Amino acid sequence: ETVLTVDGLRKIYNEGTDQANMAIDAVSFHVDKGEFVCIVGPSGAGKTTLLRCISGLASPSAGAVTFEGRPLTNVPEQLGLVFQDYGRSLYPWLTNGDNVALPLSARRMPRAERAARVAESLQSVGLGHVERKYPWELSGGMQQRVAIARALSYRPELLLMDEPFASVDAQTRFDLEDLILEVRRELGITVVLVTHDIDEAIYLSDRIVVLSKNPSVVREVVDVDLGDER
Ligand code: ADP
Ligand code: ADP
User: Fold this and answer.
1) Phi/psi at 67 (5° precision)
2) pLDDT value at position 132?
3) SMART domains, alphabetically (predicted)?
4) From 13, 21, 50, 61, mutation site for ligand 1 pocket: most ligand atoms within 8 A of C-beta
5) Neighbour count for residue 106 (Cβ, 10 Å)
6) Which of 8, 84, 114, 142 could form a disulfide with 63 if both were Cys (CB 3.0 to 4.6 A apart)?
7) CB–CB of 193/176 below 8 Å?
8) 135 Cα to the center of ligand 1, angstroms
């Protein structure tokens, strides 16, 4: 069952000026419910642009994104976002628990429910014990887990991640990859993840969307079947 449809997406930066730059063109693919899709391609292929257009952080110049048949809206019930730059995405003056609570407070969830949801989200990434600590007291890998917990706190249907493991060391990256596979299994959430690392894409995903650089279009969609290996 298709939940996410990306249809003919094009993004031209600085459109109508002599700086015009077509970052992506005619990108189309679909994602089934519960599927894990990776978007790969060389640097500058438009991966981040594509993810920003899907999430509504950037407006496409042409084409459309629909989720369950309707335009995808950037609300925490629908969409969880995780970026590479976890250091900047967590607020240092808030505890980890309060960082995770942000999407919930923004939607005015009642205090008791919010507290339960924060504890549940942090536990789901193995960090129940850091709720009252601050992000700067944690390692980079742990901070990224907090960022994932925040993205999951509203139990979104779709998780979008942009190079989420690019800034951590190799062992931490392997741990985070396994964590996200486990979270996905437990929650049955649909995941779209951008990476430049083809090995990571093969390890994580059911399907890989390959973007080429010139022109920046979908070159190939590859099915990954690892059987029981994962
Ligand atoms: P939009 O078309 O979505 O409004 P803009 O073209 O206005 O986006 O660019 C958004 C911001 O990104 C601007 O502040 C611009 O300075 C900055 N920017 C411009 N060129 C680049 C680039 N090559 N890479 C990253 N950011 C850039
Ligand atoms: P990737 O994530 O695959 O490295 P990007 O989506 O970051 O690719 O960039 C695709 C192209 O769009 C590049 O040529 C980049 O310079 C350009 N670009 C990205 N962001 C902006 C922006 N905000 N304004 C103008 N150009 C941009």
Assistant:
1) -125, 120
2) 97
3) AAA
4) 13
5) 11
6) 8
7) no
8) 29
Residue nearest to atom 8 of ligand 1 (CA): 13
Task: Name the token pair of 108.
Answer: 């005015």
Backbone angles phi, psi at 111, to 5 degrees: -55, -45
Each residue's pLDDT tens digit, 81-124: 898 876 568 999 999 999 999 989 888 899 999 999 999 999 99
Which residue has its alpha carbon closest to ligand 2 atom 12? 23
Give yes or no for a contact between 46 and 211, defined as CB atoms under 8 angstroms apart.
yes
Q: Tell me the CA distances in angstroms from 186 to 22, 35, 118, 179, 183, one per residue in order.
A: 39, 13, 17, 10, 5
pTM, two decimal places: 0.84
Note whether ipTM > 0.95 here.
Answer: no
* Nearest ligand to the C-alpha atom of residue 22: 2
Task: Report the alpha-carbon distance of residue 79 to residue 90 in Å, rounded.
Answer: 18
Residue of the CA atom closest to atom 27 of ligand 2: 13
Residue pair 148/168 in contact (Cβ under 8 Å)? The answer is no
Q: Tell me which residues have their CB closer than 6 angstroms to ligand 2.
A: 13-14, 21, 23, 41, 43-49
CA torsion, ordered 163, 168, 174, 178, to nearest 10 deg: -60
Helix (H) or strand (E) holding 49: helix 47-55
Residue 14 Cα: closest atom of ligand 1: 6
